[in-house]
């Protein structure tokens, strides 16, 4: 397993060891001991799985407020996504900045999204499945989001008219969003 730091503090790109032959492949999508060895000591309590039937489905930008904030371990098991993480921790050297990644069933990459970051993705192909582990249970009263098209963020999404849920179409810009995150370096 290869773990790469990104520009956003705490955001990690993880590339699992993949063993393939003519029959297909095998990989460990999660191994607590290997993750601990890499300094990733999260205890996951919930697995989530989404299917987006169409290309151009945009989900996000989501997060949960403290004390129910979540670290997410995200991967794609079918299809491909343009995955975006926005640092919303006040005082962070990358506050309000975003970083994007292509996650796909073929590249098998994972993202570790730290607490205090908003997360979203846009499907690049039909029938895309995203699976992610979280270290805190879903809490509707702490659930929040940021507008996918917030002009101050300037995210370069691969679509201009995405397919959105009603909820995701109503998120405020970062400057108006509920946010109780402070960067702890």
UniProtKB/TrEMBL annotation:
Function field: Catalyzes the epimerization of the C3' and C5'positions of dTDP-6-deoxy-D-xylo-4-hexulose, forming dTDP-6-deoxy-L-lyxo-4-hexulose.
A GO molecular-function annotation: dTDP-4-dehydrorhamnose 3,5-epimerase activity
Keyword flag Repeat: no
Protein's pathway: Carbohydrate biosynthesis; dTDP-L-rhamnose biosynthesis
The protein, known as: dTDP-4-dehydrorhamnose 3,5-epimerase
SUPFAM superfamilies hit by this protein: RmlC-like cupins
Organism field: Thermobacillus composti (strain DSM 18247 / JCM 13945 / KWC4)
Residues the record marks as site: Participates in a stacking interaction with the thymidine ring of dTDP-4-oxo-6-deoxyglucose: 138
Record field: catalytic activity: dTDP-4-dehydro-6-deoxy-alpha-D-glucose = dTDP-4-dehydro-beta-L-rhamnose
Similarity section: Belongs to the dTDP-4-dehydrorhamnose 3,5-epimerase family.
InterPro entries named among the record's database cross-references: RmlC-like, RmlC-like_jellyroll, RmlC_Cupin_sf
Highest rank taxon of the organism: Bacteria
């Amino acid at each position: 397993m290869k773990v790469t730091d990104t520009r956003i503090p705490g955001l990690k790109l993880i590339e699992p060891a993949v063993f393939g032959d003519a029959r297909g492949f095998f990989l460990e999508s999660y191994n607590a001991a290997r993750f601990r060895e890499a300094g990733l000591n999260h205890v996951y309590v919930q697995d989530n799985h989404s299917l987006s039937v169409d290309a151009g489905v945009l989900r996000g930008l989501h997060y949960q407020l403290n004390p129910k904030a979540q670290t997410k371990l995200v991967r794609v098991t079918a299809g491909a996504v343009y995955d975006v993480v926005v640092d919303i921790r006040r005082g962070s050297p990358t506050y309000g900045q975003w970083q994007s990644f292509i996650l796909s069933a073929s590249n098998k990459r994972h993202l570790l999204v730290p607490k205090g970051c908003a997360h979203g993705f846009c499907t690049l192909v039909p029938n895309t499945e995203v699976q992610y582990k979280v270290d805190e249970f879903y809490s509707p009263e702490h659930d929040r989001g940021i507008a996918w098209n917030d002009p101050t963020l300037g995210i370069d999404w691969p679509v201009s008219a995405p397919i959105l849920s009603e909820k995701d179409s109503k998120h405020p810009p970062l400057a108006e969003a509920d946010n109780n995150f402070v960067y702890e370096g």
